[in-house]
Each structure stands twice: as C-alpha cells, then as structure tokens.
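B., you asked whether I could sanity-check this one before it goes into the benchmark set. Here's the sequence:
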Amino acid sequence: MSTHHNTKGITSRLHTRHMNQRELAARWGMSVRTLERWRFLRQGPPFLKLGGRVAYRLDDVEAFEGAQRKEAGTA
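And here's what the prediction gave me:
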C-alpha cells in the first residue's frame, strides 16, 4: 500500500507560508502599530503567536483581503 497520498498532505502543510507583522505592514503600506492595535481590538486577519512572535498565514491574509474587496459603486 502506497503512502504517497498521505505524504502529499503532510508536505503541503509543511510549506504553508507565513509573514511576520513587519512583512504584512509593508504589504499593506501601514504601520506595525496599526496591526498591533487591530490584534488588540480583534480586527484584521487571524494570527498566530509562537514563542512571543506574531505570524500571519498567507492563506489567512489573502482571505482577509478578499473579504475586504468592494465592488465599484459600493461604500
């Protein structure tokens, strides 16, 4: 019995991309302080806190960006 299918799922999870708060702030053209405030207010994308460091999964960042998308003519 091949384990090829099982290892594919594991491999994809190991390659999940993350960004730190400086990288995300640069991506969005905002300050790190704004991201810190958003976390305090429970706004913005989900984040991870690992050993005192903050990280954002790229998938979560892109999902948050998609949710902020507005069609032309809407507020």
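One thing to flag: The CA atoms of residues 45 and 61 lie 6 Å apart. Otherwise nothing jumped out at me.
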